[in-house]
Amino acid sequence: xxxxxxxxxxxxxxxxxxxxxxxxxxxxxxxxxxxxxxxxxxxxxxxxxxxxxxxxxxxxxxxxxxxxxxxxxxxxxxxxxxxxxxxxxxxxxxxxxxxxxxxxxxxxxxxxxxxxxxxxxxxxxxxxxxxxxxxxxxxxxxxxxxxxxxxxxxxxxxxxxxxxxxxxxxxxxxxxxxxxxxxxxxxxxxxxxxxxxxxxxxxxxxxxxxxxxxxxxxxxxxxxxxxxxxxxxxxxxxxxxxxxxxxxxxxxxxxxxxxxxxxxxxxxxxxxxxxxxxxxxxxxxxxxxxxxxxxxxxxxxxxxxxxxxxxxxxxxxxxxxxxxxxxxxxxxxxxxxxxxxxxxxxxxxxxxxxxxxxxxxxxxxxxxxxxxxxxxxxxxxxxxxxxxxxxxxxxxxxxxxxxxx
Length: 405
Ligand code: ADP
Ligand code: ASP
Ligand code: MG
Fold this sequence. Notes:
about 400 residues; binds adenosine-5'-diphosphate; binds magnesium ion; binds aspartic acid; 20 strands; Carbamate kinase; globular
């Protein structure tokens, strides 16, 4: 008998019919002799709707209250899934994140899990029930309700799987697995049977939103077997695995696109030690995550520093830069929210020369200008105009031989 954690994303529980289909699959999994724990997201785009509603009341909602509001979405789906299971005579009970023992830090809207005390979940399993847990939420060490960041139900599922020592954590979604590019952008994208943790982390960090980055990090650290699959076809999907040293690695396994970031440039700053340190310390103190950074070669003792941040942090980041501008001796602060990033990812890149050249040639041959570049040992990212990102992904997908026949 295996213990299976099944996480169902927003589309998978999008309406009553989908919820019934989920309950039937849970019942089938049980009939096959497994124990099942279910983790659910809010229905469809319900979280977006709640954020919009909050925005109609306040441009700066108190983070504690925003979290309280957003966790309502997952409460609705957990209760409905549990009711659908009851209809099939499968005994179950729903649990909020707090009831499931998910203890987080106090960082509202992006809380990190500190501990899990799954006693009630274990007791429910021992009593023969299917526990249905609200994803994306927990309770802080100060007893306030928190959320784990957008896409956070993936983290809940992996964390619960780890705490219960589950045999597998299945992430059910609206595509049949992890593809060589977002199948909504590249119609010729191919499903990958396996992806290494390293590659999946780079994908998740650069726009491949099929798995939230933190869930992949958590799964690797705690050795949780992850299987991404479809709640529409139920066919086997993609396994996220440790790299197999005996296998030849794909030079480029996947291409990602991301238009969720904006660029800030602090222009005309003195080219001396300590300037970048002070700028990024101030941003860090405001809790702003900085992604790509480029500093131009100095001329006449002056230079420019450009970096990218999430669009949702743009106003705060720009205000922060404007505040320290005079202390830094900078001339100006400008921002640009019309950028996008295209990345190529592949573990085999480490040992294959010419990958960078082919990427740059492909973009240039198609008239796509590169504005910023960053690399890791298994990834190359280029910032381009947002409206060219889709083209860039498709051209690169073809150039690196990834198109499905
Ligand atoms: P869920 O609500 O189930 O969590 P998400 O919308 O978070 O679903 O993630 C699934 C979506 O991720 C897909 O619909 C797909 O458009 C997108 N996606 C982006 N990149 C990829 C990729 N490389 N492979 C598969 N899906 C991807
Ligand atoms: N409902 C939350 C969101 O939309 C969490 C999730 O779906 O994983 O971000
Ligand atoms: Mg998701």
